[in-house]
């Protein structure tokens, strides 16, 4: 088992931030989890916890598998035979799972993503995969929302992109202020969605009426 065997076989940091010499090994990561268990007052040697450090490290490998991916590459294959279709394309109510970079606890919610095609459209699952690729990193909801919209705008060059994320932060629902029913809504609009209030309202209406 090498230190870099992420699910996708790539280093866990973005390509422009790779510093492989400084990256701890899997064994060091597991030792850190064991330290945390002892700090909690636990006995890492007891039966129920024996494999926990290895499981936690594998879980975080999955939670953060987006670091090894290039979300823009997911949008590289497009279709242009859509009979001149030029109205909004919207993927609604996409389950979103991420982790907050301040507390390392889940951010769980729903994303709505729309774009206004300029001749080309992408396969319907690709928008959800772009979301996942950014969500499987440590995030703030604001950053995630902006990254998804800007990636689609840059890679696909549509006439506009709209992203709305509605999510609950477990750092707020299960600790701290303990407000379980609060969700946070963030939006990012580019191009026509910024300039055309009617278009923006159609997106917001469709996001609301589930
Ligand atoms: Zn947090």
In short:
This protein is of the alpha+beta class. It has 7 helices and 7 strands; from the N terminus they run ααββββαβαβαβαα. The N terminus is likely disordered.
Fold blueprint:
Blueprint (H helix, E strand, L loop, with lengths): L25 H15 L11 H12 L14 E2 L9 E12 L5 E11 L4 E2 L1 H12 L2 E2 L1 H16 L3 E10 H4 L10 E8 H4 L1 H12 L2
Parallel strand pairs: 2-5
Antiparallel strand pairs: 1-4, 2-3, 3-6, 6-7
Helix pairs in contact: 1-2, 3-4
The structure holds zinc ion.
The site of zinc ion has 5 residues, from loops.
CATH topology tier name of the largest domain = GTP Cyclohydrolase I, domain 2
- The CATH homologous superfamily of the largest domain is termed GTP cyclohydrolase I, C-terminal domain/NADPH-dependent 7-cyano-7-deazaguanine reductase, N-terminal domain
Helix content: 25-40%
Specify the oligomeric state: single chain
- What is the annotated CATH architecture of the largest domain? 2-Layer Sandwich
Number of individual domains? 2
The helix/strand class is: alpha+beta
> Which distinct ligands sit in these coordinates?
zinc ion
β content, as a range? 15-25%
Which shape, going by the Cα principal axes? Answer: elongated
Strand order of the largest sheet: 5-2-3-6-7
Radius of gyration, in Å, reads 20 Å
Report low-confidence residues grouped into runs of 5 or more.
1-12
- Termini separation comes to 46 Å
Give average pLDDT, whole number. Answer: 91
Main beta sheet strand tally, sense and closure = 5 strands, mixed
